[in-house]
Amino acid sequence: MNRRDFALFSLSALALASPARAHHGWGSYDAQNPITLNGPIKKLEFINPHVHVDLDVAGKLWECTFAPPFRMQNRGALAELMPVGKVITAYGYASRVKPAEMRAEWIEIDGKRYELR
Amino acid sequence: MEHAGAGLFHAIEQSGYALMIRDAVLLYPVANTLHVVAVLIFFASVAVMDLRVLGLISGEPIVAVIRRWRPVAIAALAVLALSGSVLFVPEAAAMARNASFQLKFALILIALINVCVMSLAMRGFDPIHVDAPALARVSAALSLVLWLVVAACGRFIAYA
Asked: How far is B13 from B88, CA to CA, in rounded Å?
């Protein structure tokens, strides 16, 4: 097998989709249709590789993916600002592969915006 | 897509090691950064040896080049494995079912077998001879391609 064939083989193997996908990358989110979610926090996971918040949006539970903890802290979006019960706004994009999951471009807490990209 | 193996990876995600990594602020980003830098050092040392074996670069005798750079490659590989474990364990289940991750590891295994092939091919190589044995040269060429594809697979995990 020569070099070109090997490269083609590798690319083809990569293209074979696995049914379950890791949530990484902005590409698996519907960036053409941004959504704005507002509601109280039901759960906070301030962890690596990504901070997650479950938001209760009019009875529907959304899993919101934010930035890594280091970036969150760097930008002032501290864990203490997002306790359970706190109402926040998350603007971002719904997942194309996982229902009721979104990745936030920015969040707003008490009128202050925190950019996450 | 649940099966017996999936339980193992979920268990890894719940281990003390994984929970520590999830909660620590700097450990994961530092490991991620170190992983990338170690890839460069690993590939540079591997490439020097492979290119020398291939005769595409000249200079010190082949055996001397290998003797100098193999320890660097091994040390970099150890850093890759350790930093890689920090990246892996907090998301073990998602990593295990990630097609790019699976391909990356399959290729690493093949690349490591290829290292053994290279060693065998170079056994008893007389430094008097300028050209490395043909099998060693094939192995060197394969090594370059394999490790580059491994690196690409690593980057692509986030998108698979």
From this structure: 9
Mean pLDDT, range B117-141, rounded to an integer: 89
User: Residues 6 or more apart from B2 whose CB is under 8 A from it?
Assistant: none
Give residue-wise pLDDT tens across range B55-110: 999 989 999 999 999 999 999 999 999 999 999 999 999 999 999 999 999 999 99
What whole-number distance in Å separates Cα of residue A92 and Cα of residue A70? Answer: 20
- Looking at the complex, does the CB of residue A18 fall below 8 Å from at least one CB of chain B? yes
Helix axes A3-15, B134-156, angle to 10 degrees: 30
- In chain A, the residue whose alpha carbon lies closest to the alpha carbon of B27 is A48
Q: Provide the 3-class DSSP secondary structure of residue A95.
A: strand
- Evaluate if residue A59 carries a pLDDT over 70: yes
Q: What ipTM was assigned to the predicted interfaces of this complex?
A: 0.76
* B63-to-B117, B134, B145 alpha-carbon distances in Å: 16, 15, 22
Q: Please compute the mean of the pLDDT values over residues B22-45 and round it to a whole number.
A: 97
First to last CA, chain A: 42
Average pLDDT over residues B110-127: 92
Contacts 24+ apart (CB under 8 A), B62-67: B62/B122, B62/B125, B62/B127, B62/B132, B63/B122, B63/B125, B63/B127, B64/B127, B66/B122
* Separation between Cα atoms, residue B58 and residue B48, nearest integer Å: 10
The residue of chain A nearest to residue B148, with distances taken between CA atoms, is: A7
- Provide the number of CB pairs (under 8 Å) joining chain A to chain B: 72
